[in-house]
Write a structure and sequence with these properties.
With about 325 residues, this protein is α+β, with helices and mostly antiparallel strands. It has one domain: Beta Barrel (Outer membrane phospholipase (ompla), Chain C). Helix content is about 15%, strand content about 45%. The chain has a twelve-stranded antiparallel β-barrel with strand order 4-5-6-7-8-9-10-11-12-13-14-15. Strands 1-2 form a two-stranded antiparallel ribbon. A hairpin with a 7-residue loop joins strand 5 and strand 6. The protein is globular and about 60 Å long. It starts with a helix and ends with a strand. About 30% of the residues are buried.
């Protein structure tokens, strides 16, 4: 059945990767209608003669422009991380061990195929504090893993991760030729799965994240330090060893499409951490076809010490 679900997702998406002049023109008009002090629509995109859109700035610059415009409206709701729904297949198999240890007398019928979705948004809380280039943000990310094919167990959610964050953003916009460093973040993050006893997972971090861009390339490097404390159940796991001590993000903006690569690195060795590769093809002003491949530890908190190998395909909401 999952093959039929994937087929229904893939076939229309392949057709939708063909050129779409009308959509491109609509996006260009929408950008031209925005107002702001940091950039103009012409600096970010130029409409070519064939109706397609050419990006003159990097993906990071494009999103920065949108966010800086929204800073004029405190408490505006903006996308933070990717917002998507995807059908996923776990080549490594579903991780049953935590559930079997927590409930040894029960039988689980979890499949290697499930539906994943993520909802993520941020809110500018304090803008240009004391007339400086420092602003305060808050964000929340919810990521769920739904066993939609497990009808024997009433299609349960295998895992749901919650991550509220708060950070200070310092916008300094330095330049070294074509290499630009627009900002740096200093933040706090709490991540947990809301479970109890043996299934409970959770940790707290302080982090620093620096951003760079070069033409159509965008980069960020993020390092964190786990804070002490937490419940006895949560502290059974070495989150930094398996998930990593930081991550490197690289993104490239094609004329229409986006490609990204993330490496979560661990100081305990190259065998830990994870790799994530994704590819986005927009087919309307609001939606994109989305593919992602994940390999490594910590795809979800319940899998913190389990190495996953997962391919996902579906749809992502574009930045608004």
């Amino acid at each position: 059945m999952y093959r039929l679900v994937l087929l229904k997702l893939v076939m229309p998406c392949i057709l939708l990767t063909l050129p779409y002049p009308a959509v491109a023109e609509a996006q260009a008009e929408g950008k031209a209608g925005r107002t702001g002090n940091t950039a103009t629509a012409a600096e970010e995109r130029t409409v070519l003669n064939n109706g397609r859109v050419k990006r003159e700035e990097s993906l990071l610059r494009e999103r920065l422009h949108i966010h800086r415009e929204a800073l004029e409206q405190q408490y505006a709701l903006l996308p933070y991380r990717d917002n998507y729904v995807v059908a996923s297949h776990m080549f490594s198999g579903v991780n049953l061990q935590p559930f079997e240890e927590a409930f040894p007398d029960e039988q689980f019928n979890y499949r290697d195929d499930e539906l994943q979705f993520q909802l993520s948004f941020l809110v500018p809380l304090m803008v240009d504090i004391l007339d400086s280039s420092i602003s305060l943000y808050g964000a929340y990310t919810n990521r769920s893993f739904w066993q939609i094919l497990d009808h024997e167990d009433s299609r349960p959610f295998r895992e749901t991760n919650h991550e509220p964050e708060v950070w200070l953003s310092y916008f300094y916009d330095l330049h070294w030729g074509r290499l630009k460093a627009p900002m740096i973040w200093f933040g706090y993050s709490h991540q947990s799965n809301g479970q109890y006893v043996n299934l409970s997972r959770g940790w707290n971090r302080l982090y620093v994240q620096a951003f760079f861009d070069y033409r159509r390339w965008s980069y960020s490097i993020k390092v964190w330090n786990q804070l002490p404390g937490g419940s006895e159940e949560d502290n059974r796991f070495d989150y930094e060893k398996f998930i990593g001590h930081g991550e490197l993000d690289i993104n490239y903006a094609f004329t229409r499409n986006d490609m990204g690569l993330r490496y979560s690195f661990s100081a305990d060795g190259l065998e830990y951490g994870s790799w994530t590769a994704d590819f986005t093809v927009p087919f309307s002003p609001s939606l994109s076809f989305y593919m992602r491949y994940f390999y490594g530890y910590g795809e979800s908190l319940i899998d913190v010490d389990y190495k996953s190998n997962t391919f996902s395909i579906g749809f992502k909401v574009n930045q608004w």
